[in-house]
Amino acid sequence: MNRRNHNTAALAAVLLLSAFSAHSVNAASPPALIPAPQKLVMRDGSFELNRPVTIVAETDAEREAGTLAEELHSLLNSDPIAVAKPTEPGAIRLEIDPSLAAALGREGYRLTVTAGGVQIRAAAEAGLFYGGATLCQLLDTNGDSPSHPAATPATPLSIPCLEIEDAPRFAWRGLLLDPARHFLPVEFVKKFIRTMSLYKFNSLQLHLTDDQGWRLQIKKYPELTQIGSVRRESPKKGDRTQGDGTPYGPYFYTQEEIRDLVAFAAKRHVDLLPEIEMPGHFLAALSAYPQFSCRGVPIQVRTRWGIEPDILCAGNDDAIDFVKDILAEVCDLFPGRFVHIGGDEAPRDRWKECPRCQARIRSQGLKNEAQLQTWMNQQVEKFLEGRGRRMIGWDEILEGGLTPRAAVMSWRGMDGGKAAAQAGHDVVMSPTSHCYFDYAQARGPDEPEAIGGFVPLEAVYSFEPVPPSLPDSQRKHILGAQANLWGEYFWSGSDVEYFAFPRAIALSEVVWSPADRRDFSEFRSRLQRHALTLQRLGVRFRPID
Ligand code: ACM
Ligand code: ZN
How far apart (Å, rounded) are the C-alpha atoms in residues 201 and 271? Predict the structure, then answer.
């Protein structure tokens, strides 16, 4: 290093440190919490959190105290944090009190910071977890963030005195990952779950199967992954009309990996929602078991994006049993309440030409192929309900008539979701206009290739999941919203992160905070203070401008 460079480096270090202390504690300024809490009252003074930190687990709070200890250990880059018994002293106290359920529900919490310490109370473990997430943000965004690269174990940790009472606006706060188009390793999915849970998301849909790949081990049908998890080539990066000539796979999750992932997610109060697409987007399965297609001829895993004409044969009883066998293993693996059966973008041309499908239409007295899809959904719904699960699908499942208890995920705008809610069905809103995070978030030559479309941060933040004309009595059917990270143009987890953040952080406020709390320019200034957190978590994000 020559002298000049050395001086430049020294100057940079001084500037960095002075920028750091210019950030310095101002206990009176409200913390930059996202999603914004329902109620926040600032009090005079602050609490200095000294190290080593001890968390006291009062009634029934041991498990959540342990999770918070891990998160704070990582945030503070400190020695492991002790969890102590109720009789012992400690700066942070966690308590479950079921009598809070009426006021706060399962996911709400009260967080109080006084000069004497921090207390988090909730009716259930989920609430304590979210209170803990808020505490992490209080430390990380207010004053000298422990996430700053210059922070040391001696950096003061000051939290302003305050009282927060908080609970989510919506019960369903979701994101979707698509490992079918490009596989996402378990370690990436875990990191994603950890990040989303700190922003109080509670549902992660895994799009496990599609025309381009089958990514879930099914023990009864090993060829699903032996054959269906490999494709001959993929669309070329930069020119989607060409093939890249490179075989892709085998890539899939073993059942053991899924069990591990489910446990990891459960600890962070995230439900994993498995999606097994049918009858369309099913080519990877048919490449392994072509006898369950209408034409029965050998076919290969799809090597281009887009929609495949060959779909599951709904006239073949063995094909219906095949699907049920797969779902039986899915139900054993995923403990959540819902199973997603896809249902979107299924061209019904093969069904029009298929003698078996036509025979089914006649024997069941159906009017058309859309009703045949509904008939198939009925078989699947009965099967899932028999296992205590509820079926959810994309809004195409409305076309031939909804099955009795199906929930709808509305992606082609909000109308499908609105119609379903009016008919008494539960709905998750996920319209392309606000929730398609595979669409570009900015324009310009530096932005990466995207599938098309445009969903900037402000559009996400402006999203209102409840259609304004929906009568009050039907609003309860809008469970919440979900953003989708379809994977065609994400070659790695780092690409996923760039498209997910910071838009997912904007969505977290849409689905958690009171609707009248929203103010984009004020949100954006809070968001600036989350860059350090994302950096600390090793999450790539589009720069916050
Ligand atoms: C979808 O984007 N086809 C649900
Ligand atoms: Zn058929």
Answer: 9
Nearest alpha carbon to residue 25 among 45, 8, 54: 45
- pLDDT grade, residue 79 (50/70/90)? confident
- Calculate how far, in angstroms, residue 363's C-alpha sits from the geometric centre of ligand 2: 14
Two tokens, residue 110: 């009260």
pLDDT value, residue 232:
98
CB atoms within 10 A of CB 397: 30
Q: Which residues surround ligand 2, an ion (CB under 5 A)?
A: 294, 313, 315, 354, 356-357
Catalytic entry in 210, 395, 488, 495: 210
Condensed to tens digits (0 to 9), the pLDDT of residues 113-169 reads 999 999 999 999 999 999 999 999 999 987 678 998 888 888 889 999 999 999 999
Domain that holds residue 17: 3-166
Which of 211, 399, 486, 489, when mutated, tests ligand 1's pocket best, judged by the most ligand atoms within 8 Å of its CB? 486
Ligand 1 mean position, distance from CA 533 (Å): 31
Identify whether residues 377 and 305 lie together within a single domain: yes
Q: Does a structural domain hold residue 532?
A: no
Q: Does residue 107 share a domain with residue 231?
A: no
Q: Residue 443 forms beta bridges with which residues?
A: none
What's the alpha-carbon Rg for the chain, to the nearest Å? 25
Mutating to test ligand 1, I would choose from 411, 429, 439 the residue with most ligand atoms within 8 A of its C-beta, which is: 411
CA distances, 521 to each of 64, 462, 529, 533, 534 (Å): 34, 12, 14, 20, 20
User: Within this chain, do residues 11 and 93 fall inside the same structural domain, yes or no?
Assistant: yes
